[in-house]
Amino acid sequence: MSISLCMIVKNEAHQLSACFDSARSWVDEWIVVDTGSTDETRAIAQSHNAMLYAYDWADDFAAARNESLRHATGDWILVLDADERLNAAAIPQLNQAIMAENTLVVNLVRHEVGATQSPYSLVSRLFRNHPALQFTHPYHAQIDESVLALVQQEPRWQIVELPDIAILHEGYRPDVIQQRQKAQMARAAMESYLREHPDDPYECSKLGALYVQLEEVQAGIRVLKHGLASLSPGDAQTVAIKYELHYHLGIAYSRLQQSELSLSHYRVATQQPILPPLKLGAYNNLGRLLKETGDLTEAAIAFEACVAIAPDFALGFFNLGTTLRALNRMPEAIAQYQRAIQLQPDYAEAHQNLGVALLKLGRTQDARFAFKRAIALHTPEHPEVAERLRSELRRMGFDL
């Protein structure tokens, strides 16, 4: 089986080589469509023996991605962006998945590096080089609609989901998002598409979420609710989109401090039969809201689900620790804080809360060490927090 990697790029010189290197051992052909780079992107692509094509950008990611597919000659196509990396550990599973005769698409779990709320997503980025498979949607481009149409015509085709992380995505780091200032471009593209396709639940989920992010919460709720009303029960995409719609409605109603409505949407989201890592954001937000409303026992259950799903999720262990501490279960809280620190040694809030829990158990020296570490970690970026903690400890008789 030969693999073509298809990508679209513009001014990605700072990260393109890392993307190439991550997939070098698995990919046979490199298709790079450049949409107007002014840096060294084109030269770097050529230095990696990529087949380079120029394409005039027309504010449509789907059209650009389809241009890359047009040049691919491999049996299978892997789609990556320059800020994504193929996880080498997943390659044996990928090899096994594409050997199945009737497999059409292999959906891959992508880790959104730097995303604290929903660090995992499922993306249709590995699929047969079939002329019927094309991207749609100008901003959040995806092949799902063409996949569904083909499967309806030829039911023998199968869609496979791999549960382990296959792609690492750097594009959701907060600094990257600020640097690119993508929100307004995304809004214009999605609003234009939705005017032409008003009952598209996928587009409703994306645009509604963006409205909520931009603090246009009521507009977001209207679009998200319309997306729910537009879902087709027999649509293979329905379950994943339904999760997204309920998850973002949970966020929207939480912004409006309508806790019961928010909780109900988060609960529906967690009940969707999708891969557990994809539900991490809903479980985490559900736990936080339950804790805020005083339902500590249920909050602990939600956070326990978080850490069971993602044993490397430091925030989940921290949240579970704060909940157990509120329940006066100090030894268990300490264990959760320590696990969070083990995963993220520079987690200042975890050190600080660990110190509080240790102090409540009378472990003064251990608490002193935790507080000192917290102050040291707070100081570079949040000196006012460090000073406030130091002053409070001095009032308690600690000289740090």
How would you describe this structure to a colleague?
By secondary structure, the chain is of the alpha/beta class. The protein folds into three domains: 3-175, Spore Coat Polysaccharide Biosynthesis Protein SpsA, Chain A; 181-274, Tetratricopeptide repeat domain (Serine Threonine Protein Phosphatase 5, Tetratricopeptide repeat, Alpha Horseshoe), CATH 1.25.40.10; 307-400, Tetratricopeptide repeat domain (Serine Threonine Protein Phosphatase 5, Tetratricopeptide repeat, Alpha Horseshoe), CATH 1.25.40. The chain has 18 helices and eight strands. It has an eight-stranded mixed sheet with strand order 3-2-1-4-7-6-8-5, sandwiched between helices. Helix 8 (201-213) packs antiparallel against helix 9 (217-230). It is globular and about 70 Å long.
Alpha-carbon distance between the two ends: 63 Å
Q: From the helix content, strand content and strand pairing, which structural class follows?
A: alpha/beta
Shape: globular
Q: What sequence of helices (H) and strands (E) makes up the elements?
A: EHEHEHEEHEEHEHHHHHHHHHHHHH
Instruction: Name the quaternary structure.
Output: single chain
Which CATH top level class of the largest domain fits?
A: Alpha Beta
Radius of gyration: 23 Å
- Cross-sheet strand order for the largest sheet: 3-2-1-4-7-6-8-5
Please, what is the CATH homologous superfamily of the largest domain?
Spore Coat Polysaccharide Biosynthesis Protein SpsA, Chain A
Proportion of helical residues: 40-55%
Total number of β-strand segments?
Answer: 8
Low-pLDDT sequence parts? none
How is the biggest beta sheet arranged?
8 strands, mixed
Mean pLDDT: 93
